[in-house]
Amino acid sequence: MNGQGGEGRCKVWVVMEPASEGEGVRIWGLTPVERLRRALRAAGVLVQHIHSGPLEVAPTQGEHTPLLVCRSGYVFDDRLVRALVASAATALTTPEGTEVVAMHVPSEQVATVVPLLQQGLPWISLAPMAGLRLVSPPDLVPAYTAALRKADPPYLLPVRGAEVTEIENRIFQAAYKGVTDLVTKWVWPRPARAVTRCLARAGVHPNIVTVTSWVLVIVVAVLFGIGWFGVGLVTAWLMTFLDTVDGKLARVTLTSSRIGHVLDHSLDLLHPPFWYLAWAIGLPAQAVWLAPATFLTVGGYVVGRMLEGLFLLFFKIEIHSWRPIDSAFRTVTARRNPNLLLLTAGTLAGRPDLGLVAVAFWTVCSIGFHSVRLVQALAQHWRGIPVTTWQEARTVA
Predict the structure, then answer these.
(1) What share of the chain in percent tops pLDDT 70?
(2) Alpha helices of the chain — where are they, by DSSP H?
(3) Beta carbons within 10 angstroms of residue 177's beta carbon
(4) Strand order in the sheet with 90-93
(5) Alpha-carbon distances, residue 366 vs 301, 307, 373 (angstroms)
(6) CA-to-CA distance for 311 and 173, rounded, in angstroms?
(7) Among the four residues 37, 103, 264, 393, which has the most C-beta atoms within 10 Å?
């Protein structure tokens, strides 16, 4: 199989497995080869062609192009693909170390490796002959992922003999954030996986889900503002669910994009204070505690985000990832979903005004907790002790 690398970075040859091993299998709506193609594209390598045929003897005279050879019968964690592209003279093995599934061959070794490949030698014996170092997935990629705030070893899943559902579940698990609020962590996973699977098979782009969330944000603000708290809360919870789905859909289908990232994160950052303000507008004006509760809720949200930003600026990690207590507190801290629980409880009790008061109180408590943690981190830093994530330290140890 022959593929041409983009921007002259490398050539890619995808060696197809026998037809009986994965033909027609689709993982989150994609064949293993298409998943590999997207992962390579995200890593900066454009696979332009994949077709049957013998491996071509490589470079023409004067060409200095590395070669990446991959087997099509495996589903690669995109972290492995990025690391493999960046790691010359490397052969990636299965976790057991019994088979080689991909090789990054430097340009100066291509003329030696291709004839050996054409001879049909087992890759596990060919790699040392070609001077490639053998590495397993955990050797190539660290388990900790800062973007998802969790330690999760990279997956490398054989298509043959495996259930598609099992493979999809493992990929979905890898796409889920480790440190998040209690609703996202314990309530949404199962329904989010089911909806994500339907959307992936239907070919729905995650940006469509994100744009839908933006529309729902506006609808919720209007409903809260006119005092329709029950309908507004149902719509708000639907929006939070879709906010979970869009990121997972992007990760499992390898369709993450810069504009999608901007849309999603700007949505998460901007809309909560407008919801709280709209909630206050929808309440009866005679409530004496309305003004201070609104000020504490909206202003406290801004202060809380500033504390998180300062921690990230000073220590290059998120405040929720520092120690286990910070990760545990993230499940209930005064962010959108825990606050929606308080507003929902107040509405069910017939007192939406007290729901806002509860949010204001919990916002002040959360600010106090994070302020103390920021001061403690600064003190540790001044003593010369690095401020690092507990999960990363555990995986290194």
Answers:
(1) 89
(2) 32-42, 78-85, 107-118, 123-129, 137-140, 164-175, 182, 189-201, 206-225, 229-252, 258-282, 290-315, 324-330, 336-348, 352-382, 390-396
(3) 17
(4) 11-15, 67-71, 100-105, 90-93, 133-135
(5) 10, 11, 11
(6) 28
(7) 103
Determine the Cα–Cα distance for residues 162 and 73; give it in Å rounded to an integer. 11
pLDDT for 144-184, tens place per residue? 998 888 999 999 999 876 789 999 999 999 999 999 999 99
Determine the Cα–Cα distance for residues 374 and 208; give it in Å rounded to an integer.
Answer: 37
Alpha helices in 119-228 (DSSP H): 123-129, 137-140, 164-175, 182, 189-201, 206-225
34 CB neighbour count, 10 Å cutoff? 16
345, 354, 306, 395: CA torsion to nearest 10? -30
Give the type of residue at 276.
Y
Q: How far apart are CA 351 and CA 366, in angstroms?
A: 23
Taking CA atoms, 144 is separated from 148, 150, 154, 220, in Å, by 9, 6, 9, 36
Q: Report pTM.
A: 0.90
- Bridge partners, residue 151, by sequence: 144
How many CA atoms, within 13 angstroms, populate the side-chain half-sphere of residue 93?
19
Within 10 angstroms of residue 128's Cβ, the number of other Cβ atoms is: 12
- pLDDT, one tens digit per residue, over 14-55 is 777 665 455 578 999 998 888 988 998 888 886 655 544 455
When computed from its CA atoms, the radius of gyration of the chain, rounded to whole angstroms, is: 25
Q: Is 90 left (phi over 0), alpha (psi -120 to 50) or beta?
A: beta
Q: Tell me the three state secondary structure of residue 188.
A: coil
Q: Which token pair is 370?
A: 């994070």
Number of neighbouring beta carbons within 10 Å of residue 384: 6
Averaged pLDDT for residues 326-344:
97
Count of other CB atoms within 10 angstroms of residue 203: 8
Per-residue pLDDT averaged across 336-341, rounded? 98
Q: Is the separation of the CB atoms in 2 and 69 below 8 Å?
A: no
Tracing tokens 């696979």 back to the chain, one arrives at: 47
Class of residue 11 by CB neighbours under 10 A (exposed 0-12, middle 13-18, buried 19+):
buried
